[in-house]
Amino acid sequence: MRILAAAALLALVASGADKREWRGRASDAKVTLDARLYIDKDEMKKLLGHDPGPGIVIVQITVTPAPGATLKLDLDDFLLRSDRDGQRSRPLDPAQIAGSAVLVISSRGGTQGTGMAEERRVPWGVPGIPGGSPTGGPPRGLPMPGQSPNVGTATADTSEAVANVEESGKKSNPLLDALKEKLLPDGELEKPASGLLYFLIEGKLRAKDLELVYRKAPPRLSIRFKDPNKK
User: Fold this and answer.
1) Which residue among 17, 84, 184, 222 is buried most deeply as judged by most CB within 10 Å?
2) Which domain covers residue 39, as residue numbers?
3) pTM score of the predicted model
4) Whole-angstrom distance, CA of residue 179 vs CA of residue 202
């Protein structure tokens, strides 16, 4: 019995050791950024209380203005990039992740009759829906039709994008509520503000490949994530 209990304890400790905390910090004369990266699905689900879905990367961040200074914070000043394949993503609006509309993008390449086609369903905000653009254009983090997206892979010259917005009936959305509640607040800051940023980075993820860039600071601030418990 004691042997079994000891084995169970060792397994629990080993399991906890596999969960790494990826953290980073950067600062200049105007602002200090303290960030933690979440790429593990179980950790993100625990953080939000819900599964955010495939391709989502979360950065938990605290933005601290310099003493006596006021910082105008815009979430679009942040950028997450991957060294692995060059993907780049601006922060997504919660409605782009869990909203009631999706953008269906169909890419068809090759010559007529080849039958090659690829379809992706990407969250999309529309007017009248939280996160939608009041002018009818795309919300934060997504391109105008005909422009290349800031995330994803290159497509052939012969590819064409066809957008179709589908709306579902209005109903309670616990994931959307959680994403909104924990989102990093923007606007004018005179004291530290903390919250989450949501990015779309597809494919296999490694923390060492990801870089968070704050593009407003002159020069830009860059954060690389490391495990503080790793020697």
Assistant:
1) 184
2) 21-91+192-231
3) 0.67
4) 19
